[in-house]
Amino acid sequence: AEAPLPIIIVDETGTILHANAQTESLFGWSRAELVGRLVETLVPPRFRERHPGQRARCVEASSARPMGTGFDVAAVCRDGSELILDVQLSPFATRRGRYMMSIMRDVTARRAEALRLRELADRLTEANKELQAKAAALAKLDAEKNALLGMAAHDLRTPLTRLRLAVEMLQGKVDAATQSGMVQD
After folding, report:
1. What is d(CA 69, CA 116) in angstroms, rounded to the nearest whole number?
2. Is the pLDDT of residue 90 over 90?
3. Which is more confidently placed, 116 or 75?
4. Average pLDDT of 105-126?
5. What is the pLDDT of residue 29?
6. Order of strands, edge to edge, in the sheet holding 97-106?
7. Tell me, what's the pLDDT at 182?
8. What is the pTM of this model?
9. CA–CA distance, 126 with 11 (Å, rounded to integer)
């Protein structure tokens, strides 16, 4: 039975000795094309120069690196498209030499979605800051409006109070005159 995830096995020189059917599907290379090539074939050009040193250190390591450790690897497909892989590295040795088995899981879509969500969260944070600034500005304008209305009310109250008193006085005189019969119809 075929493994459910892409698997490659390389020797100490980085030569691919085995690739399964899922590796073919993932990278677009046939097994026949991959076997015998350097694993750097699957490494993006910008990382190829330093990859042999990293590969050698991994082959010499005595412990495996499990999947899900947060250490993602960029890979390149036959058509030049790039993937982000979660890779489990398992070094092992036989009488013939040291080898590295890599089990890969394509996390390109998941990482892209995580990046998109981070960008959305950053934009929401910025929008929230802007809204808070606008709310503070509106609160200041509301306080200024209330102060202006208070002053206007005070300024209008004084003449209105005088007018009311004058009207009441005149009304009082008219009422007094009416009661004393001074006003005739």
Report:
1. 21
2. no
3. 75
4. 84
5. 94
6. 16-19, 7-11, 97-106, 82-94, 72-76
7. 64
8. 0.60
9. 50
Q: Are 10 and 17 spatial neighbours (Cβ–Cβ below 8 Å)?
A: yes
CA 162 to chain centre: 65
Instruction: Say whether pLDDT at 111 is over 80.
Output: no
CA-CA distance, 40 to 57, in Å (whole number)?
Answer: 15
Burial 81-100 (b: 16+ CB within 10 A, else e): eebbbbbbbbbeeeeeeebb
d(CA 169, CA 53): 105
Chain length of the chain: 185
Distance CA 70, CA 12 (A): 25
Backbone angles phi, psi at 124, to 5 degrees: -65, -40
User: Using DSSP, how many helices (H) and how many strands (E) does the chain show?
Assistant: 5, 5
State the Cα–Cα distance between residues 83 and 110, nearest whole angstrom: 11
pLDDT of residue 61: 65
Tokens of 55: 């590969």
Q: How far apart are CA 136 and CA 130, in angstroms?
A: 10
DSSP H/E element including 76: strand 72-76
Of residues 17, 95, 105, 10, the one with CA closest to residue 58? 10
